[in-house]
Amino acid sequence: MKLITFLLIILSSISYAQVGIGTTNPQEQLEVNGKIRMTDGNENTGKVMTSDANGSATWQDGTGNFSMISTKIVNGGVVYNTSGTGNWELLTFDTEDFDANNEFDLTSKKFTALKDGYYHIEAQYTTKIVGRTGQFGIGIFINGTLKVENSLNHLGTTTQGIITRRISKLVYLSAGNTIEIQLKDDGTITEIDKWFGKTFFTIHRVR
């Protein structure tokens, strides 16, 4: 009887001991000193290990976790003018540099989030030379509602007066939320400089 009790104590202590692979002094329940390999049929270059709600791990496509988009109004082709409504109007970005998850629609000019998360948005437009005064702005619209803007009055002349407006913001989006970038001018038609370094829109999910 004493022998059985002793063996049970020994086996119990072993079952709760820390286990080391490649180390004789593990610091956690399991410590591996060296590379590990897990094969589940989905393994491939660039995959990331992802846990489900129960803690079970699988290999998943890492690009599916983060939005990465860069779009612009192209240089060349037809002249892009605003409508001159004196109110907010959509900037019609028509060319993508990249779109990792196909979340930007070139027809509607809207970004639609596939996942809940925190997104960093940055956008800018630059006009051709305009010799007039007025208020010019750039705004981020979420689900069609203005959330943040950068608007300033402008003092121009007949030979100078290029306008640049830039906006940068970290926002939280739920899956299905949309983002548009819009321009506000002073009611006169404005020609946008279409060089990609001057008029652009980027967004990526950071968490």
Characterize the structure shown:
- The chain has 2 domains: 2-61, no CATH class; 67-205, Jelly Rolls (Sandwich), CATH 2.60.120.40.
- Helix content is 7%, strand content 42%.
- The chain contains 1 helix and 15 strands, in the order H-E-E-E-E-E-E-E-E-E-E-E-E-E-E-E.
- The strands form 4 sheets. Strands 6, 8, 9, 11, 12 and 14 form a 6-stranded antiparallel sheet that branches. A 5-stranded antiparallel sheet has the order 7-5-15-10-13, with no helix packed on it.
- A hairpin with a 5-residue loop joins strand 3 (47-51) and strand 4 (57-61).
- It is elongated, with a radius of gyration of 28 Å.
- The model has no long low-confidence stretch (mean pLDDT 81).
Q: Estimate percent helicity.
A: under 10%
Largest sheet: 6 strands, antiparallel
**Beta-strand level of the residues, as a percent range?**
35-45%
Which term fits the overall shape? elongated
**Overall structural domain count:** 2
Average pLDDT level: 81
Q: What does the radius of gyration come to?
A: 28 Å
The class by helix and strand makeup works out as mainly beta
Number of helices: 1
Distance between the termini: 58 Å
CATH top level class name of the largest domain: Mainly Beta
Tell me what the CATH architecture of the largest domain is.
Sandwich
- E-strand count: 15
- Named CATH topology of the largest domain: Jelly Rolls
**Unreliable residue runs:** none
Written as H for each helix and E for each strand, in order along the chain, the element string is HEEEEEEEEEEEEEEE
